[in-house]
Structures are given as C-alpha cells and as structure tokens.
Specification:
With about 230 residues, this protein is of the alpha+beta class. The chain is about 35% helix and about 25% strand.
C-alpha cells in the first residue's frame, strides 16, 4: 500500500480559487474526519468550507478534512458581550484593527500551547495557505494592540454571509476577546448570518456560542448559501 504523505501531498493537483472538488458527504461519516490527503490550495480550501468541512491535523499526519458533530456557532442575536468586556471595549484598553497584520496574527496563534494537543496544528503549511487566502481576500483577521504591541487577535475565512472562525490568541488579559468581539460586531452589522466556531469550548460558549448537530449545521449552511444566490 502506498504511504500517505504527512501534510499536503506534493503530487496532488493545485486548485486555484476558481476550481472546486466534491468531498464525501459528512452525513455519511462515522466520525468527524470526512477525508484525508490532498493539499491546501485555494480551490481545495474553498471547496471544503463551502461543504461544511475544514482542515485540522497534527504534524506528521496527512491533511485531515473534518466536519465535527456537534458544531458550535454564534447567531447575531446570541452574541454575548459581558459587562466587563463592554468596559474593556469602551475604555479603549486595546487598539483594534482589522486585516492589518494577518501574518502576525496567524504566527502568534501558532505559538499558543493548547490542552490535549501535541505541538501546533497551525503548521508552516497552514500559515502559508491561509496567508495566501488572505492575499486573495478570503481570510481576514482582527488585531488588538496595546502600546503598539500585538496583544491578541483572531482570524478566519469569510465566505458570503458566513464567517468561519479558525483560531485566536491572547498575550494580555481579554485581548483575544476584544479582537473577536469587535470583529463579530462589525461582521454582524454588515449582515452575515452566523459565525462558525467549529468545535465547542467554554471560551466560545461564554461569548454566545451554541451547539447544533452536524446535520442541522449543514442544513443551515445550505440554506444560507441558497439565500445568498437569490
């Protein structure tokens, strides 16, 4: 049996942003892993997100394409800004910017040590792929600065009326929340339907995230996409 390469497969065709492929149906999967292999070219990433799938794999593994069950999302009316965070934002403790330092944000996200994870899943391949997606206009970031130093931030993929959050980091108290909530408020004001936070966590749930089944998420995704096309 031919060995599956770790990371992106160098022999897999490069798909530019105008090309699409069809992934296996997530509803027929027995786990969160829908497929493995391929690469992180723009067309492959866009194909995945449009079908409710995203790459998530550890160093030494092939590219794993995942669609978790349950899924965690935030609706506009459910976004929760606590009294303490309203104070942080009102007092301007952090200077917030959008899409001004994407490389810096994804680099800092890759340095964060996360519980139950060996190493970082934000590998050099991931950083290069999403930085290219940022150049193409699909990946965006929010930055929180304090005294001119990047203190927190987040990034993700924006497709139509859906923002797919990928990762965030914080080097100062509440810096990642300040960046994320500022971005979320701006996106919701611009009319996006919901934010996909992928996997539930206490941090995301405290910001208004809620769990829905994979089936309901995929139905919501398709409904939102159909609404956009009308």
């Amino acid at each position: 049996m031919k060995a599956v390469p770790s990371g992106p497969d160098p022999n897999f065709p490069y798909l530019d942003e105008h090309h699409r492929i069809t992934f296996p149906d997530p509803l027929k999967a027995d786990s969160s892993i829908i497929a493995f292999g391929g690469n992180l070219s723009p067309g492959m990433l866009l194909s995945a997100y449009e079908q409710g799938i995203f790459p998530w794999f550890n160093p030494g593994e092939p590219v794993l394409w995942q669609s978790p069950d349950p899924r965690c999302i935030i609706f506009p009316e459910k976004l929760h800004v606590s009294h303490s965070m309203k104070k942080v934002l009102r007092q301007g403790i952090y200077d917030i910017s959008f899409n001004q330092n994407f490389p810096g944000v994804i680099l800092e996200c890759s340095k964060i040590k996360r519980p139950k994870q060996r190493g970082t899943w934000i590998t050099d391949d991931i950083k290069a792929a999403y930085t290219e997606m940022n150049r193409l206009g699909y990946a965006i970031s929010a930055e929180a600065y304090q005294d001119g130093v990047l203190a927190g931030g987040c990034y993700g993929i924006l497709l139509g009326k859906i923002f797919f959050g990928e990762s965030m980091f914080s080097k100062k108290p509440n810096a990642s929340k300040a960046a994320f909530l500022s971005l979320a408020c701006r996106l919701f004001a611009d009319g996006i339907a919901f934010i996909d936070c992928q996997v539930p966590s206490p941090h995301i749930l405290s910001l208004g995230g809620e769990e829905i089944s994979r089936k309901d998420f995929l139905l919501l995704l398709k409904k939102t996409q159909l609404t956009e096309r009308k």
